[in-house]
Design a protein that fits this description.
This protein has two domains: 189 residues, Serine Threonine Protein Phosphatase 5, Tetratricopeptide repeat (Alpha Horseshoe), CATH 1.25.40.10; 65 residues. The chain is mainly α and 256 residues long. It contains 14 helices and no strands. Helix 2 packs antiparallel against helix 3. It is globular and about 70 Å long.
């Protein structure tokens, strides 16, 4: 996954579910409610620690949640995402598969697993899941899956198809930061420099600068002949992201 976008979907995707199946016996009903609350609390904590990038604490809580309720779809979905961040691809894949078996029509699982498959070379399978996530009427944020589908097409060198997905995403949510960044990049690579400049300006209204966004902004202004602005972006890139690949590339640019 591109590092700039690693956790951009987390608050929307990892929705909390509470167990609804109750036993008629009062004793078991109490236990069921307690177990569901235990799972809910540790799932919520795990997701929160994921957002904060405190992976050990996230793992500790999500493991407690999954031990309590291995059939909870969102716990499986969340711990799969955690293992992605820990670069344990095998376990991530296993938990995504389990989540999909438990809830084959869950759009958040389709979106996450589809993105995961695309990022690991299984583009056709990934796109199939992302297409389902986009199409389901239950998905109230289809721009997430549209952007992931666009990235999948981009990796496959299907530039026009990728642009179509990104534009569809922005038609539904014109301030969705990841789609704006993708359109900045794809516009620059297509030599549509004014469009790249516009998308970057739109992105700055809703998101923080990244090494990638500054690099394409620098190259865009260089192509447009705006030397002073290109130098400003170069300086920001070197100051804010000195260890990035983009900063290393920009350091070699002496003459604008």
């Amino acid at each position: 996954m591109q590092p700039n976008y690693l956790i951009i979907h987390i608050r929307w995707i990892l929705a909390l579910l509470v167990a609804s199946s109750l036993n008629s016996c009062a004793l078991f009903t109490d236990h069921s409610a307690e177990n569901a609350e235990y799972t809910r609390i540790h799932l919520q904590l795990g997701v929160r620690y994921l957002e904060m990038n405190k992976l050990e604490l996230a793992k500790e809580n999500l493991q407690l949640a999954i031990e309590q309720d291995p059939n909870n779809v969102q716990v499986q979905n969340s711990i799969a995402f955690l293992y992605e961040k820990l670069n344990n691809i095998q376990l991530a894949n296993s938990h995504y598969q389990t989540a999909l078996k438990l809830a084959p029509d869950d759009w958040s699982v389709q979106n996450n697993f589809g993105r995961f498959l695309c990022e690991h070379g299984k583009n056709q399978q990934g796109l199939e899941l992302l297409t389902k996530a986009i199409a389901t009427p239950l998905n109230d944020k289809p721009w997430l899956a549209m952007t992931n589908a666009g990235r999948c097409q981009e990796v496959s060198q299907q530039v026009q198809e990728a642009k179509t997905y990104f534009k569809q995403a922005l038609n539904l949510n014109n301030s969705y930061a990841p789609a704006l960044l993708e359109m900045q990049k794809i516009s620059y690579l297509s030599a549509d420099y004014w469009a790249a400049k516009t998308y970057f300006q739109r992105y700055l209204v809703v998101g923080e600068q990244t090494a990638g966004s500054l690099w394409f902004a620098l190259k865009t202004e260089q192509a447009l002949g705006n030397k002073n602005l290109a130098k400003q972006y170069q300086q920001q890139l070197l100051e804010k992201f000195p260890l990035s690949e983009e900063a290393q590339k920009s350091a070699s640019i002496k003459n604008f």
